[in-house]
Structure formats: C-alpha cells, structure tokens
# Entry
Amino acid sequence: MTTTGPRATWSRRLLTGAAALAVVCAFAATTALVAERNLASAASALLLALVAGAAAGASAVSVADAGSPRMTRWTAVGVAFGAALAAAVLGGVGALLGLVVPELAADIVVGVVALVAVLREAGVLRFPLPANPLRIPKDVPDDDEWGEARTGFAVATLMRGGVAARLVSGLPYLLAVAMLFAVPFGMAFVVAAGYAVGTITGAAARPAGRALVPAAGVRLLLALVCGVSVGVSMTISIGAS
# Structure
C-alpha cells in the first residue's frame, strides 16, 4: 500500500533518519562486540546510547495530529530541559534500584520490555500505553518564549494529549525502563541527549498542521534500532562488570 502527499513525505524523511541511525547502530555494535580495548567499548556504548535515544525521540514525535506543536528555538530548549530532568530522576531512582535489584533480574525486565515494545511497534501487539497524568492547561498561552519552552518540556516528558494512546510510541517507555534498571547514572544523560536530538529534529522535519501517521515499517525500523542499541549497550556493560 502506497502513501501519498504529506504522509509519504513524512515517512520518507523518517525512513532516511532511521536508516542513518541503523547504519550508526550497526557500526557501533560491531565495534563494541569485537573491541579488545576498554576505550573502544566505552566509546561504542556512548554512541549506542545516543542512537537509542535518538530513535526513541524520533518515534515519539512520529505520530502527529493537527495540534502538534511547531519546533522553535525555545521549544527545543524546553525539550532539552525536559529530557535532562527525566534522566536525572530516572537515573537517580535507577541507582537506588541497582542496590537492591539483582543484575540478572534487571536485565530480564529490560529484555522483556524491549521485546514487547518492538512487537507493539510492529503491530503484533495492540494495547494503550500509560499516559503521563500531568498536563499543561489548555488556557496557558504558548505564544511567547516561556510558553514555547513549556510546550517543549511537555513534549519531552509525554505531557501532551490529542494523539490516540494506541498510536503513541512505546520506545520512550523502553528508555525509561532501561534507565531504571540497566543504564548507569551518567549514561542516562547521554541517552537523554540522544532523545532530545531525535525529538527536536523529528518534530522540525514534520509537516505542520496535519494529522500524520508514518508507514508501519518506519516505526518498526526505529524500534529495532532502539532495541538493538539498548541490548548491545547492556552486553557491553555486562562484559565490563
């Protein structure tokens, strides 16, 4: 089934970005798995964290409605701040969980969530995702710098409504679980940086003022890139421990 008009354009843009991320992911994963020096493994782990975050960020803004916000300079600032705050909270809680949760159990949890997320993006599983209960009131103006930054913060932390829950990407939830159970505290901010970049660039490239759902294969490719990046990064961490 072919798509026409804005949806086809949006799908092609996402596919180009996802393909580029897939190439980087394959390079970093191969380097990590064959590296003999810790420095190469560490660099590959950082790159994979960035790729995982970028894939999740792009997927998070891939489904748009007519009211989806435009990406401006101050909206991007809000996205970056929201991602950093989420990393600090999730990474901090994750550091505490690491003291009481066995490493094997944590890896199993992340693996199961990754599998479910990929199957959901592929359309094999269909279920609504839990929504962030916090919302920015609709009567709050967003036509100034502060309002745009607040909107960006809402986008980064999933504090936005208007898009059907069944269509919202599950990849940000995979990142959240990974940061809680498997990602070291410092690495959480690298994941957040990738997530912010993916969200900002994805939203900036999106045609404005239209309801858009990309081709299913594009979302699946982003899910596979994110899942593989998380999985290989965990493998590196396990090997180094």
Remarks:
- Confidence is low (pLDDT under 50) at residues 161-166.
- The chain has one domain: 5-240.
